[in-house]
Amino acid sequence: MRADYSTSGTASSPWAIVAAVLVGCWVTGVTLVSQTAGWTVDQVLLVSGLDWSVPLWPLVSLITVLVIGIAALPLAMLPRSSAVRGTGRAWLAGTLALGALGLLRAIPPVHHEAYLAALAATATLLALLAGRMSHPLAGTDRPASGPAPDPAPGVVAFAAPAPDPAPGVTAPGVAAPGVAQLPASGPSVVTLLALAAGLVLLLPWVWLGALGGLLETVLAGLAAAAVGTLAGALLDGRFWGYFTHGEPPRPARLVLLGGLVAGVVLLLVGAGTGQSGAQLPLLVALPPVAFALAALHALSRRHPRTAGRTATAWLVGLTVFGPLAFTDPEEISLLLAGGRDVPFWVAVAAGAGLVVALVLAIAYGLLLARPAARAPRRSVAAVTSLAVLVAVGAVGVGFGQPGLHGERLFVVLREQANLADLPGGTGKAGRDARAGEVYQRLVATAERTQADLRRDLRRLRLDHTPYYLVNAIEVDGGPAVRAWLASRPEVARVLLSQRLRPLPAPAEPSGGETAAPNGPPWNITMIGADRVWSELRVVGAGVTVGSSDSGVDARHPALAGGFRGGDDSWFDPWNGTRTPTDRSGHGTHTVGSAVGQGGLGVAPGANWVGCVNLDRNLGNPASYLDCLQFMLAPFPPGGDPFTDGRPARAPEILTNSWGCPPLEGCDPGALRPATDALEAAGILVVAAAGNSGPRCGSVQDPPAPYPDVLTVGAVDQQRQVAIFSSRGPAPSGTTKPDLMAPGAGVLSAMPGGGYATFDGTSMATPHVAGVVALMWSANPDLVGDLDRTRQLLRSTATAVRAGTGSAERVDACGGTGNVVGAGLVDAYAAVRAASG
Length: 836
Known about the structure:
Elements: H1 14-47, H2 53-77, H3 82-102, H4 112-138, H5 189-208, H6 214-234, H7 237-241, H8 251-271, H9 279-285, H10 289-302, H11 308-326, H12 342-368, H13 378-398, E1 408-413, H14 427-459, E2 464-467, E3 472-476, H15 479-486, E4 491-497, H16 522-526, H17 529-536, E5 544-549, E6 570-571, H18 586-595, E7 607-612, H19 621-632, E8 653-656, H20 672-680, E9 684-688, E10 710-715, E11 739-742, E12 746-750, E13 754-758, H21 761-778, H22 786-796, H23 806-812, H24 817-820, H25 827-835
């Protein structure tokens, strides 16, 4: 038997076969590298605080198309073998589809519904275009045997015409001689088998993933259907015809060669499907589907009542629907990659999809592609599909995360409370009086201005949560609700309030493996806090520090004695826990540096209260506001913040080792009314500068840029600015950061009683909060006197080094203040100055 690659009567030269293999490897390698590298760069930019991802993906798509097209175009035009040319044309068509779909990633990830709608429309348009470009070739006259004629010069066909079937072989959709063609009364056997396979491939996502909102899910279904239709247009009967012609029929060649070529096409289509991150599982699970499609096509050639394109659309569409609908691309992120969070479960689902696809490819290949294979009865195929559908539903309800878990809307109203002409006075009594007045004015303004909007939201049965610290409401709803809200006269703007989707199993709690400190660690001695305890006999007694973070482990031996207690010292808006807990460890670590006992914290005699505003390391405007609002006027569990708040129980100082970037839904002014109100109430807000250094202008995520916030950068053990510490100026031109504190290699508490060393301005921030607690403990008359406190901190700060190339960095950032602030906080000098 002659070994050839031709399926249309023209033998392929060995060089053409080698060229096809090399081009296929090139296309596969370039696609995998470009997509994984693009996502990696995207994540590095995100972690670094840069927002260059919008132009990144169109650039990646353009480069990918050019690099692949240079190799695929000669293969599509030059070889004598129509099979090799058809292979090149299929890959070239897939590359063009990747380029067109990849351009859609210019849509920001926060607008996921808009992206899905654009994906559905673009994929549908490409499918129609593919059909139109290949249609003229279907009627090209050619001999009954021999090579198919080439298309007109300069025309690149998406698919080639199917050759005439060999004698005794029935072509797809054509009745065998002497056999009457019966009208189809329902889906064909091939379509039902494809449906069953697609549902099996969907199973891991139903089990491990979670749906978004209703509109998001519907659009994901439409987009998946459009991508499946596009795959059906690219891999239609004319494509498979390259691998099925001959005497006698050779189904094995169809499955192996056709599956390999089609797998590269599906790889290209999958690479363009989904926003950054969602395409990664498709790179793994989608290509093996091609072998199952090849086996189904082998079956369809022997049984005329088939629907090849429909079968491809179902199988590919269901495979695509999994990652599109059951994951949020914003959560496939390095920000959540520290444990068994979304990236881990996406990898598990993708691996399971790969295994399932390979098993289906082998099973369908062995059962359906044999020359003597007979199609199962349609009733058997229908029952099988129905059984798989029921199993998928049972898994989703019984073992998955049923329900809808979409994003919400954060509605900021135009009118904010007037906080001018507040009562004066400092000290605890004066601060409490101011806080009480601020609380009353904020609540009164919110109740008055939100009344009409709340009534309309109740009438429309839209779940909502009102806020007063910022006059705002968080609302359930999609783009239509957003447009309606934005059109109302009392609304200033509408932001997205991101919500994390649930996990199939709780993330493993973080712990610490480092030994407990034997005496004050370096960060405590560097700022002189140990001298304050021993020489000045001040430990922070009588002052309370509020922590808004991932939580606090109140059972840790360094923190148990400092918890203020009562029914208004803990709030968890995410999970509703009634006692202080922390699975992440970030909040426990920061509170330990502020008030931890045993030499761990700056003010070991101060009390602490806590609130959870981060769930799995991400938050949103509403969750950040939940905690800031609780800090102004704590309330008991189940209480109404508008009526049950207790401003006299507000902590004096707030430590905030977080920022709210656009990824989470904040704009630059989202939390500004909140910090203004806390300032007016005499509560000092201390916040981390961020970890986007050494880039200038990287103090950008609220609340760090706000003038009334004490913003903290980080130094290392050599009193040098840490390279990751964000630099100013703030977007408004304000000089930031304000102060520096130890933030590189800081030892502190972790959940479960352990200890760990972390880096970040998050670690530096609680040092400054602890220093203020010492100052106010030494001189209670300073409580609430924020201007005087900030002046004392700046005047007693000590010099730090900006690092290598310091002159250039200082000049680039607009001066020393935007790199080192006033310098390194000095606890000993600040407490002595506060004591007079």
